[in-house]
Amino acid sequence: MTNLISAQTLQAQPPICIAPQIEIAPKKERYSKLHGALIVTRTDQPTDHSADPFMNVEDINRIVELALKRKAYGKVALFVFGINTGYRCGDALAFRVRDFYDKYGNFAEVFYISEDKTGKVRPVYVNKAVKTAIELAIREKNLSEENYIFRTDGNKRSYLMEFKYNAEGDVEDAVTTFEKYDENGNEREIAPFTLSNIVKWLKGISRELGIYGHYSSHAMRKTFAEHICRNFEDDRNVLAASVALAHSSLKTTMEYYMSVDPNRLREKWMGLNLGLEALEKIKK
Q1: Range of the domain at 223
Q2: How many CB atoms lie under 10 A from the CB of residue 257?
């Protein structure tokens, strides 16, 4: 039997309000309007990789100039060293002043690194920009040969507890404390930067200078890779060689059949000198 509702009964019932279905976008997709334009108000990181390189030499010099103006000599030394050598930032933290000089007291022009993953020994050349930045830090910070070269700027001191290593035995980071003495009463050494120090500084100074990108400690190594391969005139075609040899991938051709003239590479490397323009201004 069908239930019938009279018009009188229906009028007595309170109206049913159905709320409109509104989709609320996740935070990273929210937008707001400014002067009629659609503006992203919150987003994720601009890239999904570990770091961007500093693409422009002008931007590099601006970073060095501003850091020098603030007397951040330790940061300048690490930044210039990293972008001119491609050295991993974690490994660089363990460098002492004496590591940059040979037994005769001459500034070293090349380091040799054994790569744990491949077992290969590769040279790392030290150009004029690196030498200038390192010697400036040693002089201005009054460092002895046993001091860590890439150590904190300013009056706030932190001390080294230990280095953190990865599975391959490479230095990953420095573990620091504000306690000057250890549990046995021995005085700790003034610590080098930690990776978080460097990341915070790179992000802050690039933002301040309006340099857009995602910059972590790995940005220095990527910057070196970006600039060392520029204007490297070479008439070889890897693709043509790969096809002619019937290789299944370009990787095989590049790894086992192609090579770079070490003399040309050294010449290119020693002439790289990223940041030197800004460093030489302080001499004038």
Answers
A1: 57-235+273-281
A2: 12
CATH code of the domain covering residue 208: 1.10.443
What is the tally of structural domains in the chain? 1
Q: Which residue has the tokens 């660089």?
A: 92
- Each residue's pLDDT tens digit, 230-266: 876 666 788 888 887 788 888 888 888 887 777 888 8
Report which of 109, 153, 142 is spatially closest to residue 267, judged by C-alpha positions. 109
Phi, psi of 160 (to 5 degrees): -80, 125
d(CA 189, CA 245): 56
Report whether 53 contacts 219 (CB < 8 A).
Answer: yes
Asked whether residue 34 is assigned to any structural domain, the reply reads no
User: Of the spans 63-77, 189-203, 255-269, which averages the highest pLDDT?
Assistant: 63-77
Alpha-carbon distance 149 to 95, whole Å?
6
